[in-house]
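Now for our specimen.

. . .
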Amino acid sequence: MIKSVLHTFITKIFSAAFGFLTIIIVSRLLGAEGKGEQAMIVLNIYVLMLLFTLLGNSTLVYLTPRFKFPLLIIPSLVWIMALGLVAVAITILFPSVLPHYAAETIGIAVLASVTEVNQFVLLGKEKIRKANRVKVLSPLITCLLLVIMCLFNSLDTTADFVLALGISYLFSTAYSVFVLRTDYAELTYNRLKTIPKRAFRQTTATMFAKGTTKQCGTIIQTLNYRILFYFLAAYFGEKLVGIYSNAVSLSEAVMLFGSSLALVQYSRLSNLNRTDGEAVLMKRITLKMTAINAFYTVLALLVLCIMPKGVYVWLLGADFESVRYIIRLMAFGILCISCSSNFTQYFASRGNFTISAFASLAGLLITLVFGVLLVPKYGINGAAVTSVVSFAVTALTEGGFFVRWTRKDTGTQEVN
């Protein structure tokens, strides 16, 4: 398991490096206004992905060891394509829903969703390294294309970024299908007709029940993390969104190691049985992962907080002078939400996605209340304070449920 954690962490480091270089390129060449528009496009793509993967989300990690591949992949892909068509129809009827590059946004979201479904299947099979390669391919190609555009002085608008992102997801989708080519080979008529229709109905019902609960929690969590972008855009325009999005991206980068731990933790715990002895082991693994996560998150946050202000200006441009101050305001909230990811994966591995959804909902309610009160008056500073309070409430809620769930799980099993 340690090797899987290290491989996942290294992969996320490379992915973050490519993402960070992308942030630098877009920020310096397009300024705060262009960076804000780019951030809103990426956010809209991600929101669409959450809807497109209502069936094929991270619950596949839990379901893959328990069901055959065709029973999982067919409902996932059908749902993605159906929701993609619905999204196209909505944007035709209501163009203001996606004001920037609507067709491109939907197309990229479809490709990204298929890629993510394949990645979760690989995680469910405990093929961590292959899943990591799928994950890192898109930011790698996006970054390389942007660098090439810079060399030829052709990166002028956010349209160039959208083009690079679309090409990168086209390649990552193709690669993810190639990695699972043996499984996809099962999707022939002769093989599918041997599977009872009842099995498809039952599996789809299970996916919908668990996936809806899990994805509602993820949607709530995403709104909790990102709805302040919409607040800032509505009250102050996309320039402040660009500045705030960079601070958020850098702050969340410190969670790389913790998210690597949580991802491997989820994959490992999902393949354990629910016996009393293994319940103890699950608790011990989660507590150990949380402690390690907290330690390295604090170290990373210290680096960002003491880094001279001039470094941020040198990297991102003069528009982003206030980024360090925003990171300092958000530091405690980032630590809270980083640690809560271990509790989230614990509950997910037990097949319970309601608790995390409830915790995220509690955080979202705080975000809405404080956002309305603070953002219009204090701008970015109000958004940063709002996020801290929201993240703390989310973490405390999940932590409280974890203590309640595991109160009777005691023992001396070794964590390998």
Summary: The chain has one domain: 2-406.
